[in-house]
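User: Here's a structure from my thesis project, written as structure tokens. My advisor, Dr. K., wants to see whether a designed sequence matches the one we expressed. Can you design one independently, without my sequence as a hint?
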């Protein structure tokens, strides 16, 4: 007699539990839908730096409870433009993107402004006459990075015999990109006052290992032992360059002075081994700053127009024994 009653009780309990779980799930979904939606266009995956940058954005979005629409343009400006237009069509709350080159963004930025979507320029910069087309730039001071590379070289020269002349090959990043243009300008402005530093050649390796290797092979064929210094605009190209030096029996760090930019763990390890002489830091860890700025923009709070990361140079003259793991 008691069994059917007990069964009915169990059924009611089960239905109640299902209803409650359903409600909380629905509430969770609604809460999620309410979360800030950020459209992020990454320019590609050309280097360890870039992969670290994407990871930093993904992890920071997750930690901040921000919904992320991430598109990777695989080194194509056209694909970046398409991604930005899709974010506008989707009515995201905020757009962030790392522009592959400086030029060619005005039209799409105007479209974002007309749609009322604030834009964060991350890492690289854009060249525009209308500065009101974006809200904030957050990233590195690429000009200062070039200056730090040049200052290291002047210091190194001061330790060498006075008759020394140093012939530099510059291995640049993607043509028309802000780090390529500004690192080059900072370096050249700094070494210009020293007639014993001579820029022998400048060649673009597109920020990639394979192209860095090809370019350095070409430069070694062209200049042989005249080649005294390599200024590589990033670590990835420098890794390729070291392979090329190996093929030609050149000992990096000794026969050729090696300067690089980024500060990936692998580059710091090579610096500690004496195969690299100087690594200028450029941090890809921009995720947290982007999320904070995106929140402030959505809430209509005032934001700083230019947010620079604080960076330094690591050189053969420094004690690096206490340096914390780089994380990228
Ligand atoms: O824009 C930053 C540069 O882009 C980094 O130095 C390089 O590694 C990356 O590809």
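Assistant: Designed independently from the structure alone:
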């Amino acid at each position: 007699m008691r069994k059917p009653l007990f069964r009915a009780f169990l059924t009611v309990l089960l239905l109640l539990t299902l209803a409650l779980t359903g409600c909380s799930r629905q509430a969770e979904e609604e809460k999620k839908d309410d979360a800030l939606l950020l459209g992020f266009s990454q320019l590609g995956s050309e280097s360890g730096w870039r992969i670290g940058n994407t990871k930093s954005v993904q992890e920071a979005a997750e930690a901040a409870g921000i919904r992320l629409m991430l598109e990777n343009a695989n080194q194509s400006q056209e694909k970046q433009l398409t991604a930005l237009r899709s974010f506008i069509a989707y009515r995201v709350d905020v757009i962030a993107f790392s522009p592959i080159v400086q030029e060619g963004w005005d039209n799409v930025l105007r479209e974002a402004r007309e749609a009322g979507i604030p834009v964060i320029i991350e890492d690289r910069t854009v060249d525009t006459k209308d500065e009101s087309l974006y809200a904030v730039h957050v990233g590195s001071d690429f000009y200062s990075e070039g200056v730090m590379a040049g200052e290291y070289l002047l210091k190194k020269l001061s330790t060498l015999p006075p008759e020394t002349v140093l012939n530099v090959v510059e291995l640049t990043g993607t043509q028309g990109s802000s780090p390529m243009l500004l690192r080059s300008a900072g370096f050249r402005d700094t070494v210009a006052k020293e007639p014993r530093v001579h820029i022998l050649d400048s060649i673009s390796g597109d920020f990639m290992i394979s192209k860095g290797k090809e370019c350095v092979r070409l430069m070694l064929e062209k200049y042989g032992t005249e080649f005294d210094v390599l200024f590589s605009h990033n670590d990835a190209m420098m890794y390729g360059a070291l392979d090329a030096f190996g093929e030609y029996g050149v000992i990096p760090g000794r026969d050729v002075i090696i300067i690089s930019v980024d500060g990936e763990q692998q580059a710091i390890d090579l610096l500690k081994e004496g195969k690299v002489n100087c690594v200028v830091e450029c941090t890809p860890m921009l995720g947290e700053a982007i999320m904070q700025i995106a929140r402030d923009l959505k809430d209509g709070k005032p934001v700083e127009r230019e947010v620079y990361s604080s960076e330094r140079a690591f050189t053969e003259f420094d004690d690096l024994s206490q340096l914390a793991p780089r994380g990228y």
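When you compare it with your expressed construct, this may help: The pocket of alpha-L-arabinofuranose is lined by residues 46-47, 49-50, 123-124, 179, 207, 234, 236, 261-262, 282 (CB under 6 Å).
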